[in-house]
């Protein structure tokens, strides 16, 4: 990173602009992603990945947790795990009275079973606390490789919708 002060300033700006909290106390997204690994002097490789990332709200717009999973590339299966932190940036507009979702950025540092050390993050669109669309970039610190991925995740821990809601409609005959 050429200018860490600029990066820090952008994070602080995002934090000050939002003033919004994550609504859920915990999330457990199961993410399926695919993309490519690009390294100088070698062909681009396909990568498919599945991860689970339990995260807990730290307070305000911050969540932290761990990521664990596996990936397939170059005809090999490997595992990875590491810490993740997420910062809510924007609350999407409401549709009638329901929240439609939010945009958040994340940063993670993942260690792979093949010696990978992936440092990076992504931008995520959390839609109705049901699905997450993500665009991720990670840099392998062990080898000079760049990982670009697009993913879709499903929330495994959603709040249950109450089934015993009593309604007292007004008869207007």
Keywords summarizing the entry:
mainly beta, Porin, 10 strands, elongated, eight-stranded antiparallel β-barrel, 173 residues, 9% helix
Structure description:
By secondary structure, the chain is mainly β. The protein has one domain: Porin (Beta Barrel), CATH 2.40.160. It is built from 1 helix and 10 strands; from the N terminus they run αββββββββββ. The radius of gyration is 19 Å and the shape is elongated.
Write a short abstract of this structure.
This protein has 173 residues and is mainly beta.
**Biggest sheet: strand arrangement:** 2-3-5-6-7-8-9-10
* CATH topology call: Porin
| Tally of separate domains | 1
The gross shape turns out to be elongated
In what range is the share of β-strand residues? Answer: over 45%
Number of helices: 1
Spans of at least 5 consecutive residues whose pLDDT stays below 50 are none
- Biggest beta sheet summary: 8 strands, antiparallel, barrel
Strand runs, count? 10
Oligomer: single chain
Mean pLDDT: 85
Rg? 19 Å
Determine and state the CATH class: Mainly Beta
Helix content: under 10%
| CATH architecture designation | Beta Barrel
Order of helices and strands: HEEEEEEEEEE
End-to-end distance: 70 Å
**From the helix content, strand content and strand pairing, which structural class follows?**
mainly beta
């Amino acid at each position: 990173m050429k200018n860490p002060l600029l990066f820090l300033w952008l994070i602080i700006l995002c934090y000050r602009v939002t003033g919004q909290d994550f609504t859920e106390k915990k999330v457990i997204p199961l993410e399926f992603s695919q993309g490519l690994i690009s390294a100088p002097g070698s062909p681009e490789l396909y990568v498919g990945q599945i991860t689970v990332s339990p995260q807990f709200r730290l307070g305000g717009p911050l969540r932290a947790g761990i990521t664990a999973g596996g990936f397939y590339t170059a005809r090999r299966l490997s595992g990875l795990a590491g810490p993740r932190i997420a910062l809510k940036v924007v609350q999407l507009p409401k549709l009638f009275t329901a929240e439609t979702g939010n945009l958040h950025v994340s940063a993670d540092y993942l260690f792979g079973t093949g010696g990978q050390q992936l440092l990076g993050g992504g931008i995520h669109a959390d839609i109705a606390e049901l699905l997450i669309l993500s665009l991720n970039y990670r840099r392998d610190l062990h080898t000079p490789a760049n990982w670009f991925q697009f993913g879709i995740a499903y929330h495994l821990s959603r709040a249950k919708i109450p089934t015993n809601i009593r309604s007292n409609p007004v008869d207007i005959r």
